[in-house]
Model the fold of this input.
Amino acid sequence: MSLERLWAGWRSPYVTGIAASDEEDGCLFCTLVASDDEDAFILERTERTFSVLNAFPYTSGHLMVAPLRHEADLEGLSGEEGMAVFRALQRAVVALKEASRPHGLNLGVNLGRVAGAGVPGHLHWHAMPRWDGDTNFMTTVAEARVISEDLRTTWEKLKKAWPKV
Done:
């Protein structure tokens, strides 16, 4: 059996700490909103939300949905913003199902740093496809994740599958 090589070059800034998100350095999501869609892997912008591919994914297709307005607290969202986020999550699910054909999906939000929020100052929901058998020893033993597809390819597939508003 030959030695397999796993390449995930886009993770280098993350593992070396360069891409660590600190509120002192500005909000990651607010910076993304001000960026070009293709460069930032933004899948959709609406009047109140945006959806973006996670540049440091847990698995291929890991994306995030966030309100455009910088808000840390769930209860700080207006009813319109909350509904807009939910509708964006619905579109994300449709796109993930079509583009990735997963066996299931994980959807969630982490409220506060101790709950796992990497960017606690700006609410965001995670959506990621899951497949039977997509777990292995790499995360536990090697402290590494295997991402099966490059970000550009994933973004292109999801962009094409994204329902129009």
